[in-house]
Amino acid sequence: GYMVMADSFNTSLFKQTFQRVFTKDVQGSFKMAFAATLEVKTSREVKVSGAIGPCVSLNAKGPCVSENEIGTGGTCQWKICGLDASTTLALYFEVVNQVRTADLRSD
């Protein structure tokens, strides 16, 4: 969200702040996005434990979801309400079913 500090909608401070929210890049696209969905798909050796950041779980279960939850876990899909250049998310994974290189060697 955004917080605008002004006494009135008619002040120049409010108008400048409001216009800055809707600035565009050189291609004419807004520098933000809304209602994003993040989905993680993994191989059999990796499971997703969770995400930390401005996201909520979409409760999508599956074989790639770890039992060990970190942050918002128990899912492989998250909803992100707003994204901009300063948005940061961290995804956590668990390595399972490791293939040992010693088991693969033939003597």
Keywords:
single chain, alpha+beta, two-stranded antiparallel sheet, 107 residues, three-stranded antiparallel beta sheet
What is the N-to-C order of secondary-structure elements (H for helix, E for strand)?
HEEEEEH
Number of helical segments with 4 or more residues: 2
Distance between the termini: 62 Å
As laid out across the biggest beta sheet, the strand order is 1-4-3
Q: Give the number of DSSP strands.
A: 5
Concise account of the structure shown:
With about 110 residues, this protein is α+β, with helices and mostly antiparallel strands. It contains 2 helices and 5 strands, in the order αβββββα. The protein has helices at about 10-20, 100-105, and strands at about 30-40, 45-50, 55, 75-85, 90-95.
Write up what this structure looks like.
The protein contains 2 helices and 5 strands. The protein is α+β, with helices and mostly antiparallel strands. The radius of gyration is 21 Å and the shape is elongated. The chain starts with 11 loop residues before the first helix and ends with a helix. The chain has helices at 12-21, 101-104, and strands at residues 32-39, 46-52, 56-57, 77-84, 90-95. The strands form 2 sheets. The chain has a 3-stranded antiparallel beta sheet, with no helix packed on it. Strands 2-5 form a two-stranded antiparallel ribbon.
